[in-house]
Design goal:
Layout: E1 2-7, H1 11-20, E2 27-33, H2 37-46, E3 51-53, H3 56-60, E4 65-68, H4 72-84, E5 88-91, H5 99-111, E6 116-117, H6 126-136, E7 143-152, H7 166-169, H8 173-189, E8 192-200, E9 220-227, E10 232-238, E11 249-257, E12 260-266, E13 272-278, E14 286-287, H9 292-295, H10 303-313, H11 318-327, H12 335-353, E15 359-360
Parallel strand pairs: 1-2, 1-4, 2-3, 4-5, 5-6, 7-10
Antiparallel strand pairs: 7-11, 8-9, 8-15, 9-10, 11-12, 12-13, 13-14
Helix pairs in contact: 1-10, 4-5, 5-12, 6-8, 8-12
């Protein structure tokens, strides 16, 4: 049985990691720690976690693997210390506050032969997997271009938020939700050779609660991609949108190629569909049948139910990582891949600071 330590006690830890491993056949969360030890004890009692520790260093002595779900600025030092103790690591993105820190974690993962994961959630969702299924099976032929939009509104109120404090987060929406979309682009069309980007800090942010000055990160980013296979892409991620849906978040992905077109929509309410139109057919694009090996067993009444089923009942992400640790096998997306995505994010940020021109990406995932 793999003994897993959970570092972090936020709502995300309780929404994602604790329920995912509540009934796993090969491992469970046996220890937890957080900055607030009393809160960690309450969470542990609620989820029947037997051990609570005041620091990651204490926890390391009692587990085989760790989930790093703490604050962004703490990801790099905690994950690095865990791998130096020969522990397996699932580390939330961003792996560090910049690509240099992420690269250091990638090197440590290889040096210690750690079985690692960077949890880019959206590639595991059935809509993304169905897009990949159709692309792999030739629906669009040779890919020409991709457009993906991630619209949400959590930055509209202008309150101080650690997500937009560059000293705490490393970047704004580009590293937060933008890294998910960059990962999705590589998942669908392969590696990225060049990146250009423009960003905006649209909404003025309130001061830090402690009164200290800080640099506010971007709340909108428009990123242009050139893939190594010759296709191009355009990603828009924005946290200042009003979508008018219950969750105020929508995802849109379009992929065009020589053989046809795919459209995907997730409204984070009840709609998650993939439509297609083959070259030569007349529109509108029709909904495509859902492959059974992707959708069977998942509730589809609401997107949140599908999300819960994917990450709590299947071998997606956390559960798959624990199985990989149990079997001693690698799994994707790992920390070297997460470092690669962070290098793309950093390249995009450099482009934004340089007027948006295309810049080359270092594509060696083990760099």
């Amino acid at each position: 049985m793999v003994r897993v330590g959970l570092i972090g006690t936020s709502w995300w830890a309780e929404a994602m990691y604790l329920p995912a491993l509540a009934d796993h056949p090969y491992g469970r969360i046996t220890a937890i720690c957080g900055r607030d030890v009393d809160k960690a004890a309450r969470v542990a009692a609620e989820w029947d976690v037997p051990e609570v520790y005041a620091s990651p260093e204490e926890l390391f002595d009692h587990v085989d693997a760790v989930i790093v779900a703490s604050s962004n600025a703490s990801h790099h030092p905690i994950a690095l210390a865990a791998m130096e103790r020969d522990l397996h690591v699932l580390c939330e993105k961003p792996l560090g506050l910049d690509a240099a820190q992420a690269n250091e974690l990638a090197a440590a993962a290889e040096r210690h032969s750690a079985i690692t994961m960077t949890p880019f959630t959206y590639r595991f969702m059935p809509m993304a997997r169905q897009l990949r299924h159709h692309i792999d099976n030739g629906y669009i032929g040779t890919p020409f271009h991709l457009a993906a939009r991630y619209y949400t509104g959590f930055a509209r109120d202008g309150e101080y938020a650690w997500r937009f404090d560059l000293g705490e987060s490393g970047s704004g929406v580009l590293g937060d939700i933008g890294s998910h979309w960059i990962d999705l682009a590589t998942y669908l069309l392969g590696d990225i050779a060049e990146v250009g980007c423009v960003t905006n800090a649209t909404v003025a942010r309130e001061p830090r609660p402690d009164g200290l000055p800080y640099e506010a990160g971007e709340d909108v980013a428009l990123t242009t991609l050139r893939f190594t296979n010759g296709a191009i892409g355009h990603l828009i991620v924005s946290a200042v949108c009003w979508e008018g849906t219950p969750f105020n978040q929508t995802h849109h992905v379009e992929v065009h190629g020589s053989g046809g077109t795919l459209y995907a929509l997730n409204d984070w309410d009840t709609v998650q569909e993939v439509r297609g139109l083959r070259a030569g057919e007349t529109g509108p694009a029709r909904p495509l049948d859902r492959p059974g090996d992707i959708w069977d067993g998942l509730r589809t009444g609401t997107v949140h139910d599908t999300y819960r089923d994917v990450f709590r009942s299947t071998e997606a992400m956390t559960r798959g990582w624990v199985t990989a640790v149990h079997l001693g096998e690698p799994i994707q997306p790992d920390i070297p891949h997460g470092a690669h995505i962070q290098r793309i994010v950093d390249t995009a940020l450099r482009s934004a600071a340089d007027g948006g021109r295309l810049l080359p990406v270092e594509n060696t995932e083990t760099a």
